[in-house]
Amino acid sequence: MAVFTDVSTQQAQALLDTLALGELQALKGITAGIENTNYFVTTARDGEPHEYVLTIFERLSFEQLPFYLELMRHLARKGVPVPAPQPDAQDRILHTIAGKPAAVVDKLRGGHQLAPDQFHCEQVGAGLARMHLAGQDFPLHQDNLRGLPWWRETVPVVLPHLTPEQAALLQAELAFQEQLAPSAAALPRGPIHADLFRDNVMFDGLPGRERLSGFFDFYFAGVDSFLFDLCVCLNDWCIDLDSGRLDEQRATAFVKAYESVRPLTGAEHRLLPGLLRAAALRFWISRLWDFHLPREASLLKPHDPTHFERVLRERIAKPWHALESLP
Ligand SMILES: Nc1ncnc2c1ncn2[C@@H]1O[C@H](COP(=O)(O)OP(=O)(O)O)[C@@H](O)[C@H]1O
Ligand SMILES: N[C@@H](CCOP(=O)(O)O)C(=O)O
């Protein structure tokens, strides 16, 4: 259950008034998610129902939030399907509820594709590349806060909770990524989503003919290599969830669709196997951290860290190279 902050109908209506979004019809806490408090909000305006998501930010501060919210606004204005944050009369998109930062964004239509096929992977691949291109002129900067410096800081904190074999793997992989870092830093970069898993994407439409309706949950976004973002996706969208094995057919389709919008450079192709490992390491570390050092407020079942240990072992044992696109 991920409602950390209770919002009354009066508090919600007061915010909706500020944003001129209409009369509150329904306010429903969302149980999914582990970072923030989210509510589905239905309003009536001009005789029509409108649907939004109200997020109360539990971990991110007023100072940190403009990067994420402005990025969503920037992408939405450029036609990338992401939830647009709703502005007040002064064009402000960061608001306050119960003394905490809050935002109201458009509700995306449809639902998740938790067992994606090639057709879904192609749509996410092409959409990811469009998002990368659209973000290139975004003027704000924030590093990916779950990048190498965070891994360096967090690995020693989780090490005491691991078996000797796990600890050896974690340390060896961190050392490998330290070596890779200078080449990775030279790759094409810009704002990335950095957490575009199956549960952060919506599809809408009839079964078998679903269309991508949008990407959401940008609260791990930051500036990093586009290839890292692609690898985060491949490690979630294109794998067999039980074994962590990459499904080559889906992975190839994903990369091809990405490249139909933004072809990868030679350096990106060369570093793909290493960054698939980096993307697995990033989520192994964060899941270990959430599992062994849970936040006081969290009543949630943390994600299984051993999943990304398996994914990492797979990527090390079987490096995967996407076929280079023809010139
Ligand atoms: N803009 C949105 N449109 C539609 N559904 C959303 C939107 N934002 C969040 N949700 C729903 O809320 C759930 C939790 O949101 P999420 O951002 O994953 O939470 P958290 O930030 O706590 O991890 C999602 O799985 C999705 O069902
Ligand atoms: N995708 C991450 C967890 C991040 O949680 P989210 O609900 O905010 O997407 C993982 O699987 O470890």
Automatic annotation (TrEMBL):
<feature type="domain" description="Aminoglycoside phosphotransferase">
    <location>
        <begin position="27"/>
        <end position="264"/>
    </location>
</feature>
<dbReference type="GO" id="GO:0009088">
    <property type="term" value="P:threonine biosynthetic process"/>
</dbReference>
<dbReference type="Pfam" id="PF01636">
    <property type="entry name" value="APH"/>
</dbReference>
<dbReference type="InterPro" id="IPR050249">
    <property type="entry name" value="Pseudomonas-type_ThrB"/>
</dbReference>
<dbReference type="InterPro" id="IPR002575">
    <property type="entry name" value="Aminoglycoside_PTrfase"/>
</dbReference>
<keyword id="KW-0418">Kinase</keyword>
<comment type="similarity">
    <text>Belongs to the pseudomonas-type ThrB family.</text>
</comment>
<dbReference type="GO" id="GO:0004413">
    <property type="term" value="F:homoserine kinase activity"/>
</dbReference>
<dbReference type="GO" id="GO:0005524">
    <property type="term" value="F:ATP binding"/>
</dbReference>
<comment type="pathway">
    <text>Amino-acid biosynthesis; L-threonine biosynthesis; L-threonine from L-aspartate: step 4/5.</text>
</comment>
<keyword id="KW-0547">Nucleotide-binding</keyword>
<keyword id="KW-0067">ATP-binding</keyword>
<keyword id="KW-0791">Threonine biosynthesis</keyword>
<dbReference type="InterPro" id="IPR011009">
    <property type="entry name" value="Kinase-like_dom_sf"/>
</dbReference>
<dbReference type="InterPro" id="IPR005280">
    <property type="entry name" value="Homoserine_kinase_II"/>
</dbReference>
<protein>
    <recommendedName>
        <fullName>Homoserine kinase</fullName>
        <ecNumber>2.7.1.39</ecNumber>
    </recommendedName>
</protein>
<keyword id="KW-0028">Amino-acid biosynthesis</keyword>
<keyword id="KW-0808">Transferase</keyword>
